[in-house]
Design brief:
With 118 residues, the chain is an all-alpha fold. The protein has 2 domains: 1-44, no CATH class; 67-118. The chain is built from 7 helices and no strands. The longest helix has 19 residues, at 82-100.
Amino acid sequence: MGGTHFLPLITNTQVAARMFAVGDLVTAPKAKELGLLLDVYPKEDLMPKALELARKMAEGSPSSCRALIQTLRHKQDMANGGLSAALDWEAECQGRSYAQGDVLEGVASIREKRAPKF
């Protein structure tokens, strides 16, 4: 939950709308292009790169890092009515989908390996 709140903040509303409406798989290079990823590495380079990043982060002040993360989260929460409002709206929309049977049909189509019949 919260995807409809956060994805437009990361990309933009048009990209988010298309991703949600079409539901295409997003490759790692495409995700980087859209701003969802900062870097993409070959499998064999991933752990060394992650450890290098962790070392750099560990060199900084823990309290400054914590304050930065809290500030960024607060900024995101305040955008467009905040995360709480976005989660409430998503829950309402999901409830409507459940009531209309869309969720059951979606799950059944995956289980039966067929296109959904909405």
